[in-house]
Specification:
By secondary structure, this protein is an alpha/beta fold. The chain has eleven helices and twelve strands. It has a ten-stranded mixed beta sheet, with helices on one face. Strands 10-11 form a two-stranded antiparallel ribbon. β8 (245-251), α10 (259-269) and β9 form a beta-alpha-beta unit. The protein is elongated. The two termini are 32 Å apart. Bound molecules: S-adenosyl-L-homocysteine and iron/sulfur cluster. The site of S-adenosyl-L-homocysteine has 16 residues, from β6 and β8.
Length: 337
């Protein structure tokens, strides 16, 4: 952009306004080009590539305010993003960081996909731009960007950080760290690097179980980082930034939701600044994951309520996640091209 600006002798203000209209107001390419003097507009229009992804299909939930958007990259990979329209008007987009995920968690549709590659910063950011434009057309505003779509963000750390840089930069999307959230399967080194480079960006950790054997079975990839190592990284993060880390617990009957699980979790979390988020299990069609000879089953509604009450009674901040878009396979763990 800077080279182009110099070549066309454009006022830096023009580029600043173009970026603001495109990246902050989400008014689209034509409106952004409207900021450029007419004499050079067509040249800017040919020189600048505004979009990196092709939008293939959009599904709207009939249950709630979720939409799932299927995009295609230039080399033909398919990825999905989810738009979450929340009643209060604070809309969020859940973006993908990879075209699949090598972590292969038993309960997740993304983990079953083959041919995984990292998304580039423009591919990550165009998900935000295009969904932001969809919301803008409805008179809504995109407020939050959460890295909870396809992929493990810390497996694509450099591109993730480059995207976060743009998302938080005043000359870019200008979103504060409070409106950005990265969810990880629990890569300690990634957590440390995020804490030092982007301390105010929210962190969520998919803990699911504090029983090492259960976690190893559910998330085989995480065996390389035993639970104490993960806890140490969360503790370190707490010392760097005074905001709770979100701890995600997938509620599975008899596996992560027993009284012993609740007691173990409370003990594990003692001394950490956290917010526990209980996630109901969204079954993945066509799969029957088995752990210890038992088919994975979501916890009963009542059990989730009891577990939540127990955590709150012990003084923990805790909430239950209401996954949106279950009817269009857009809920947590259901994204699969
Ligand atoms: N790779 C990152 C972020 C994407 S998944 C991570 O694993 O944290 C976002 C959340 O959805 C994670 O907490 C993940 O464990 C959870 N999830 C995966 N599959 C799920 C399913 N079938 N039902 C409910 N939650 C699921
Ligand atoms: Fe990857 Fe997250 Fe799915 Fe696990 S839950 S396979 S880390 S996307």
């Amino acid at each position: 952009m800077e080279a182009l600006r110099r070549r066309l002798r454009l006022d830096p203000q023009v580029i600043r306004r173009l970026r603001a209209v495109f990246l902050r107001s989400f008014c689209g390419q034509d409106a952004a080009l409207g900021e450029v003097p007419e004499a050079t507009r067509s040249e800017v229009s040919t020189a600048v590539r505004f979009h990196e992804l092709e939008r293939i299909e959009t599904l709207h939930s009939v249950l709630d305010g979720a939409s799932k958007v299927l995009f295609k990259t230039r080399d033909g990979c398919r990825i999905e993003s989810v738009l979450l329209r929340i009643k209060t008007g604070r809309s969020s987009v859940c973006v993908s960081s990879q075209t699949g995920c090598v972590a292969g968690c038993l309960f997740c549709a993304t983990g079953r996909l083959k041919n995984v590659r990292n998304l580039t910063p423009p591919e990550i950011l165009d998900q935000v731009v295009q969904t932001g434009e969809m919301l803008q057309a409805e008179g809504r505003r995109l407020r939050n960007v959460v890295f909870m779509g396809m992929g493990e963000p810390f497996h694509n750390r450099e591109n993730l950080f480059s995207a976060l840089e743009q998302l938080s930069s005043p000359g870019g999307f200008h979103l504060s760290g409070r409106h950005l959230l990265v969810s990880t399967v629990g890569v300690p080194e990634g957590i440390r690097r995020l804490s030092s480079c982007f301390p105010s960006v929210g962190l969520a950790v998919s803990l699911h179980s504090v029983r090492q054997d259960v976690r190893d079975e559910l998330m085989p990839y995480c065996r390389q980082w035993p639970l104490p190592e993960l806890r140490a990284a969360i503790l370190e993060r707490n010392t760097v930034y005074n905001q709770p880390v979100m701890i995600e617990i997938l509620m599975l009957e008899g596996l992560t939701d027993t009284d012993a699980d609740c007691a173990g979790l409370k003990e594990w979390l003692a001394g950490l600044q956290v917010h526990v988020n209980l996630i109901p299990y969204n079954p993945v069609p066509g799969t029957v994951p088995v752990v210890a000879g038992q088919v994975l089953l979501g916890s009963r509604e009542q059990r989730v309520g009891e577990f939540l009450a127990e955590l709150k009674k012990a003084g923990f901040k805790a909430t239950r996640r209401h996954s949106l878009g279950a009817d269009i396979q857009a809920a947590c763990g259901q994204l699969a091209r």
